[in-house]
Automatic annotation (TrEMBL):
Keywords: Acyltransferase, Transferase, Tricarboxylic acid cycle. Pathway: Carbohydrate metabolism; tricarboxylic acid cycle; isocitrate from oxaloacetate: step 1/2. It comes from Flavivirga algicola. GO terms for molecular function: citrate synthase activity. This is Citrate synthase. CDD domains: EcCS_like (cd06114). It catalyses: oxaloacetate + acetyl-CoA + H2O = citrate + CoA + H(+). NCBIfam families: cit_synth_I (TIGR01798), PRK05614.1 (NF004126). Belongs to the citrate synthase family.
């Protein structure tokens, strides 16, 4: 037994070796399996990126088609899941609903827990990639009071997600390529980010050999928090509040810097990036393009740009190397796409799904031991028990 060093928040503790995502926070570099995020966002589609993250190589046309066919074959969700959905109050936060439904999938597919062979593992992987978008669409439609249905398997993976979410009750739907391309890009940019809070959660839950769906459900819960994936919702709420308050960005900058005020500038700062988050650069440009293409003039975008400019020039932010992160502009695009604010983090989960799966699979294939951190005990030493009447 050596001396145990405590590292709160694991700021300087590596939990694993991984060959999936490379991140250089000083230089602002992000690569999936060696490919730059900029190039993937520009040239690949989300399903190819999912395959790349999970299996390590970009798929050939045949591999990609087979992968997609296998996913489509798994896109039916047990009808009884609708009963669970019915039991949630209308005001339930979609992240709570989606994490419960993901966990429930294990109950409906108990064999998915057996992943002793690569073949079994593959089955669980395509199963969740097939069913998760259906759960996302159902969660959204239920909240909106729209009828629930399945997608259209003649469509691409991302095209189908949008149709499942937005098809009218009478079956009417017109595909908008701008929205498909925008969502594809956003999902790629969110697809993995090495050992962040939710991914570490997925690996540690999975390390007890709990099933993939249970591990993912835990990851979704971790993502929900406003310091992590929940920041995209928090950013938009903050921008709305600034707008409603007359658009005075300076006032909110002062609040963010005031140490007696718990307010933080949401969408700013990152544990690892001490330079521009490369995803934020791409998303900022995409936000401009998408809103332009859709003909939307959103005053919220102007407030965001103003806030960013001020923060980048402000000594407090410069000293602490706080830059806009991936969540700063993503919500503005989601909003332009007609996705309600409380669904933003669910969209993040949809994008992060392949990364979580890849990390879980890597952990299992490498036969990593159960995750079990140590502690330094700081409580009472041995005490004598006092009966309740004498306390
Ligand atoms: N606004 C104002 N001050 C900040 C902010 C912010 N957004 N972020 C960090 N700081 C300050 C913090 O108060 C501290 O100051 P001091 O040294 O004077 O005490 C210093 O910067 C370092 O912050 P920290 O909290 O020790 O850094 P961390 O690595 O523990 O936290 C973070 C990282 C992302 C949780 C944090 O920057 C934050 O809360 N940001 C706002 C929430 C957010 O946008 N989260 C999304 C992260 S990216 C996507 C994702 O993970 O899902």
């Amino acid at each position: 037994e050596g001396v145990i060093t405590v590292d709160p928040g694991y700021k300087n503790t590596g939990s694993c070796e991984s060959a999936i995502t490379f991140l250089d926070g000083e230089k602002g570099i992000l690569r999936y399996r060696g490919y730059s995020i900029e190039e993937l966002a520009e040239k690949a589609d989300f399903l190819e990126v999912a395959y790349l993250l999970i299996f390590g190589e970009l798929p050939t046309k045949e591999q990609n088609d087979k992968f997609h066919d296998d996913i489509k074959a798994e896109s039916i969700v047990d009808e009884d899941v609708k009963k669970i959905l019915d039991a949630f109050p209308k005001a339930a936060h979609p992240m709570g609903v989606i994490s419960s439904l993901t966990s429930a999938l294990t109950a409906f597919n108990p064999s998915s827990v057996n992943v002793d062979s690569e073949e079994d593992m593959y089955k669980s992987v395509v199963r969740i990639l097939g069913k998760f978008p259906v759960l996302v669409a159902w969660t959204f439609r239920k909240k909106e009071g729209l009828p629930l249905d399945y997608g259209d398997n003649s469509l691409g993976y991302v095209e189908n997600i949008l149709k499942m979410m937005f098809v009218k009750p009478n079956g009417e739907y017109t595909q908008n390529q701008i929205l498909v391309d925008a969502l594809d890009k956003l999902l790629i940019l969110h697809a993995d980010h090495e050992q962040n809070c939710s991914t570490s959660t997925v690996r540690i839950v999975g390390s007890s050999h709990a099933g993939l769906f249970a591990s993912l459900s835990a990851g979704i819960s971790a993502l929900w928090g406003p310091l992590h994936g929940g920041a995209n919702q928090a950013v938009l709420e903050m921008l709305e509040a600034i707008k409603a308050d007359g658009g005075d960005t300076k006032k909110y900058m002062a609040k963010a810097k005031d140490k007696s005020d718990p307010f933080r500038l949401m969408g700013f700062g990152h544990r690892v990036y001490k330079n521009f988050d490369p995803r934020a650069r791409i998303i900022k440009k995409a936000a401009d393009e998408v809103l332009g293409d859709l003909g939307i003039d959103d005053p919220i975008l102007d407030i965001a740009k103003g806030l960013e400019k001020e923060a980048l020039e402000d000594q407090y932010f410069v000293d602490r190397r706080l830059y806009p992160n991936v969540d700063f502009y993503s919500g503005i695009i989601y909003r332009g796409m007609g996705i309600p604010t409380d669904m933003f983090t669910v969209m993040f989960a949809l994008g992060r799904l392949p990364g979580w799966i890849a990390q879980w699979r890597e952990m299992r294939l490498r036969k990593e031991p159960i995750g079990r951190p140590r502690q330094v005990y700081i409580g009472e030493t041995a005490r004598e028990f006092v009966p309740i009447e004498k306390r």
